[in-house]
Amino acid sequence: MTPHLSVGSLLMLCALGFAVCAQQPASSSGTALYDPATLPSGQLGSAIRYGREVITNTRRVLPGYEGANMDCAACHIAGGTKARGGSFVGLYARFPQWNKRSHRMIALQDRIAECFLRSENGHPPAYTSRAMIAVVAYIAWLSRGTQAFSKEPSAQRFIVALPTASPDPVRGARLFAQRCALCHGANGAGSAAFPPLWGNLSFNTGAGMSHVKMMTGFVYYNMPKNAPGTLSLRDAYDIASFVLSHKRPVFRENAPVHFPPQPAGYF
Questions:
Q1: Which domain holds residue 89?
Q2: 18 φ, ψ to 5°?
Q3: Helices (H), 33-119
Q4: What pLDDT, on the 0 to 100 scale, is given for residue 142?
Q5: Measured between alpha carbons, how far is 32 from 81 in angstroms, rounded to an integer?
Q6: Which of 3, 85, 97, 233 has the fewest CB atoms within 10 Å, measured from its CB?
Q7: What is the pLDDT of residue 111?
Q8: What is the pLDDT of residues 67-124, one digit of tens each?
Q9: pLDDT grade, residue 157 (50/70/90)?
Q10: Separation of alpha carbons 176 and 50, rounded Å
Q11: Exposed (0-12), middle (13-18) or buried (19+): which is 105, by Cβ within 10 Å?
């Protein structure tokens, strides 16, 4: 379970969004490096540090909130600091934003909850919980120096224009055996270190990675882990089609999501 923060801590974390935008990111290359030595002191620094732990060690830090056998860092490489690898850099400045899928304006907490429900095939921590506030604080810290309401930098995106020809999952199976099975297993079940790509413990059908365009771009820019960038776009396309040809949990559109209520005095 995730304990709640005090009112003072909440106010301090809310102020983070204004404070970090005045600072420069740790790297001018578009990828903000995470250096614990640069974190603010006190509760704010502790929250940012814990937020990174939630991202990189989700299964250990938040047991029971994930249904998939993977950490958030499976899709947000290096804790969300790698360009074209699910980067969080600048993300804080782009919320609230219009969400086409839900047909409404959403907050950053909504986007995080979406990941828990879809990619993690689990359920999200409450918006006032220590874990949720810490993840927001961590993303805000990585986004320092970015302009509010700025558009997503092209260097952070991994969506690609797909080849015009249809994908070849048979060829993808051969490539998977040669380039991917070493980490993810021949049966796609993954391991303690690498996420499952299909089966009951993988991401569900509502996840972004369940779309061939999303997975193709991610594989193209980031895989295999020991030699990223060595696959052609066609290779990545065929591998993605092979991976997505397997069964995975079905996203439950009508599953209720409940958060514990808070008394007025909490706020």
A1: 7-151
A2: -85, -35
A3: 42-56, 58-61, 77-80, 108-117
A4: 94
A5: 6
A6: 3
A7: 97
A8: 999 999 999 999 999 999 999 999 999 999 999 999 999 999 999 999 999 999 999 9
A9: confident
A10: 35
A11: exposed
pLDDT tops 70 at residue 225: yes
Predicted local confidence at residue 155, as pLDDT:
61
151/67 Cα distance (integer angstroms): 32
Same domain, 115 and 197: no
pTM of the model: 0.88
Cα–Cα distance for residue pair 267/259, rounded to 1 Å: 15
Domain count, the chain: 2
Whether residues 76 and 41 share a domain: the answer is: yes
Residue 238, domain CATH: 1.10.760.10
| Structure token digits, residue 245 | 């040809």
Regarding whether 195 and 98 lie in a shared domain, the answer is: no
Give residue 193's pLDDT: 95
13 with 95, same domain: the answer is yes
φ/ψ region of 87 (left if φ > 0, alpha if ψ in -120 to 50, else beta) reads beta
3-state secondary structure of 105: strand
Q: Which two tokens stand for residue 101?
A: 């899928």
pLDDT digits (tens, 9 = 90+) for 6-32: 434 444 444 444 444 444 444 444 445
- On whether residue 263 sits in a domain, the answer given is no
Q: Count CA atoms closer than 13 A to 18's CA, side-chain side.
A: 4
Closest CA to 197 of 214, 213, 209: 209
